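[[Per-residue structure]]
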Amino acid sequence: MKQQTIVYGKYPAKEILSVITPIGESKTTTTFFCENLEFNLKLDSLRLRTFLKSIECAFCGIKGEYFLLEKQVNNKQNHLPHFNLYAVDPVSGPILMTHDHIVSRSNGGANNISNTQTACTLCNQAKQSDDNLSLEEILKRRALIQKNGGSWKRNKEVICRDCGETFRFRRKRQKRCKPCRDKIFEEYKRKLLDFQSDMG
């Protein structure tokens, strides 16, 4: 089941960076008040400390602009609120920033501050554990992720059953291109509204 996210507050990047605990300093708790709620948070994770090194993606150069204090909720457990850094991509809109292991963990890289760098989620997904990829290849994959909606791998090319246009797809048995699927969905919504209006 897809996780739901509750957003408690939005903060300028500089404000949160100023209270993140640097490496070597004692862990402290910072209090935040949001919507009449009080949160006592420790800002000392490796991810947050990596942002003290830089808030720019090491690959595409996009820069984190603001933090959201968020809480993910699902049916199994409630997670504590935490801060996520976001950049604004001109194509994708808000994009989550994270930390990338320079030498990936699967290749024996250490899980410490000297082996981390800031990366947007698109570039992080593009790199994966391919530590020897060139910057050019990472950016090429990033562009494919944006174009294909989540994957840099080339998708199968098929002909839309409705309009006859060629399109690429990732989902098995997908027979219609996105514009045609959107058109069908809009028609379904219109019929549903007409039905509800008749019932009312």
